[in-house]
Amino acid sequence: MLKSWNRREFLWGVSQSALALLVMGRASGQVVAASKPTSVLVLGAGLSGLYTALLLEAKGLSVTVLEARDRVGGRVHTLDDIPGKPEAGAQALSERYRRLLALAERLQVPTEPSLGLDKESLLYIRGQAVLPKDWAISAANHLAKSEHSLLPQELLSHYLRKHNPLENANAWIKSKYSDIDIPLDKYLRAQGASNEALRLIDFNPASLFNSINTTSALWALRNDQRAQTRSQHPMHIQSGNSRLPEKMAASLKSPVQLNKVVESIRSQATGVKVYCSNGSKFDADYAVVTLPFSVLRQVEITPPLPKIQAQAVQELPYTAVTQIRFQVGHPFWETDGYPPMMWTDSLLESVLPVRDKQGWVQSLVSWATGTNAKQLDAMSADTLTKYVTSELTRIRPGTEENVEILHVVSWGRDPYALGAYSHFAPGQIRRFQDKMAKPWQRIHFAGEHTAIASGGMESALESGERVSSEILARIGLLSPQAQAP
Ligand SMILES: Cc1cc2nc3c(=O)[nH]c(=O)nc-3n(C[C@H](O)[C@H](O)[C@H](O)COP(=O)(O)OP(=O)(O)OC[C@H]3O[C@@H](n4cnc5c(N)ncnc54)[C@H](O)[C@@H]3O)c2cc1C
Q1: What is the DSSP string of 361-409?
Q2: What is the pLDDT of residue 99?
Q3: Which residues have C-beta within 8 Å of that of residue 50, sequence separation ≥ 6?
Q4: Which residues pair with 49 in a beta bridge?
Q5: Environment class of residue 218 by beta-carbon count within 10 Å: exposed (0-12), middle (13-18) or buried (19+)?
Q6: β-strand 286-289 against 262-267: which pairing, if any?
Q7: Residue 390: which of 336, 441, 442, 347 has the closest Cα?
Q8: In terms of CB atoms within 10 Å, which end of the chain has fewer, N or C?
Q9: Which bin fits 182, alpha (ψ -120 to 50), beta or left (φ > 0)?
Q10: Which stretches of the chain score pLDDT less than 70?
């Protein structure tokens, strides 16, 4: 049972480490002058922006959050109008999300276990349906002999794990690893991956990048290092992950300003000015930019960012993800005897059942990434419907006239995300990583793309912790040595 919450307790106890950083601020005499607290504009009301705002408010700063959408949460988005309330963005967290769990507890936003993915899936490769137990001897298996017994979804981790040199979650930023900041396909080939293995790896939605030839091997190894200590306890926020950012926003002193599409940011000697597409203008002492770089590319920053940082904003790749949700008439898997989940080498990539708490299938979602998602994104709504239904019929004849598209989410085409997650192209970790989130004049940067040690939602919070301590140090409320790593 949680003890009853009051604002003051919450704001001083958001997370243990943030709290530690905050209380290391100087004596209370230095807390922001009562007459005019330092003001901060936080751009973006995703988890990183909202968390930054909460932490800065806790130290008495005056914070205004500007958000382009008509909702908060950004890439955390529960589809409340679809049966089963599926998640379009962040799916799950785990017991390893230290900051997020502390925050959820403080805000009295309950979590509950997730069912996780089904154990069994049907493979559909090179036009043939194959059960995993038959894969090693299937005619559809064109892998090299040494790879024959590996399922397509196991290939990437098999080759990454072979000689992963990264000793912990922070190691990937060390300069001694820059010699593996090379194209992933080249690295995998050197580890012995066959051409067919490389082809199949690009159909894996769990890979989190666009394609193996445009991704840094070091980045993939970083993801693999984390996966080795992956939690056994997936969970989500009860009633939908969006409930967390909603409660964070409701806990702020000033309501988030919605429908404010930031178009330009000016840093001047005395403060920052932010201009929005609807003509509104905001002033503050500092700005924290949490927009994904994919979107920030379109925002004018004055004076212009230093060269390398500007290049990072322009070039950092974001993974396209397109999800197509289907309503199913009768459960075709009970008729054909195959599992409902499918792993395919079609543009649809994987098809996953969305189950309710009792385990009943509510809907199906096809989840495509990278170049496959981009091809789906290029289709008109009509063409997409025809294409997807005929592909499903080809893969699983029982779906014919038995599925209806309920909803399509394209993160690649979402104007305020332009991709699902950031990653690094070959050579970019070396060039960008230690420079891309550096404060520029009165502008500071946060967001998942700027985090080091954590991933997903937790990375957004990690970045909020780092940026808030940067600002507090700047105004004398925190010694620079006490800043988060
Ligand atoms: C499909 C998908 C699956 C995922 N699965 C998981 C998972 O299972 N577990 C996990 O931990 N994480 C997962 N994630 C990642 C997680 O959702 C993100 O890392 C996290 O939510 C990012 O938070 P953020 O604050 O950095 O960015 P965002 O949430 O993108 O916040 C940025 C905000 O800026 C706003 N914005 C953009 N442009 C402008 C503008 N011009 N003016 C004003 N505001 C603007 C956006 O609308 C947004 O609200 C997933 C993400 C996606 C897309």
Answers
A1: EEEEEEEEEHHHHHHHHTS-HHHHHHHHHHHHHHH-GGGTTTEEEEEEE
A2: 97
A3: 42, 65, 72, 245, 248, 249, 252, 256, 464
A4: none
A5: buried
A6: unpaired
A7: 347
A8: N
A9: beta
A10: 1-35, 230, 479-485
Span from the CA of 35 to the centroid of ligand 1 (angstroms): 35
Amino acid at 71: R
Ligand 1 pocket member 37 (CB < 6 A): no
Question: How far apart, in Å, are the Cα atoms of 253 and each of 32, 105, 271, 476?
Answer: 16, 20, 22, 23
According to DSSP, the residues that pair with 257 across neighbouring strands are 66
How, if at all, do strands 300-302 and 262-267 pair?
Answer: parallel
Instruction: Give the model confidence (pLDDT) of 292-336 as tens digits.
Output: 999 999 999 999 999 999 999 999 999 999 999 999 999 999 999
- Please report the pLDDT score of residue 481 as a whole number: 56
What is the chain's alpha carbon radius of gyration, rounded to the nearest angstrom?
23
Report the chain's terminal Cα–Cα distance, integer Å: 34
Determine the 3-state secondary structure of 50 from DSSP: helix
Nearest-CA residue for atom 34 of ligand 1: 44
Residue 448 beta carbon below 6 angstroms from any ligand 1 atom: yes
- Tell me whether the omega of the peptide bond preceding residue 303 falls within 30 degrees of 0, making it cis: yes
- Strand (E) or helix (H) holding 443: strand 443-445
Report how far ligand 1's centroid is from the alpha carbon of 211 (Å).
Answer: 21
411 pocket-lining for ligand 1 (C-beta < 6 Å): yes
Query: In a mutational test of the pocket of ligand 1, which residue from 87, 244, 291 has the highest number of ligand atoms less than 8 Å from its CB?
Result: 291
Residue 375 CB: number of other CB atoms within 10 A?
Answer: 14
